[in-house]
């Protein structure tokens, strides 16, 4: 077991090493939390599904349909912030505390400044990814990207294959780096108000390093589920987002030893 100090004022964090079957356990535990609090869980999912649908319609109306693909992928990057309230629901279920909408919506107040810093990091990562996507579209499709009606055909055409390859490669690099820095950072900050953002992200990085194979499996499962949710015109997020949010909490609890 590896130990990493959080700060001079708090107990050290003790990280666990887990096996490849644990990501499936996290999903199972997340599903149980959804079943325990279905109304709150599905409410969270429905809110972000509605926001995603509005974004889809807005981009089409503004003639920026080419941004749909990179922003859909980018949702997976900023997903940890979208699930803050779900972490609090799972935390309260674990602790036997009362669960309510007010507590879930107020989860950020447990560590507002540090959670906001991680949020800023994720927003910067999203902006970098969107900028890369813009450059790739201009490189392969010129200064006039395809409209929504022609987007899928253009991307899947022979001319679009190099674009897909470059996009998937750059997206994979962004996804792995962002995931490693934030896999358990936000649940850690929700659980431990004395923890700071830098320590939380470094702890997440160390956790991924020490559990590389299980965490890469978890990244694949979570990323695939998120893409399915987004791919179903965001409607799938009604189920996918709360499932992944609750499961991420259980991943954190499994990987980081509880405070005594």
UniProtKB/TrEMBL annotation:
The keyword Mitochondrion does not apply. Keywords: Membrane, Transmembrane, Transmembrane helix. It comes from the Bacteria. The chain crosses the membrane at residues 39-59, 65-87, 115-141, 161-190, 217-244. The keyword Iron does not apply. It holds the Pfam family DUF2189. This is DUF2189 domain-containing protein. The lineage of its organism: Bacteria, Pseudomonadati, Pseudomonadota, Alphaproteobacteria, Rhodospirillales.
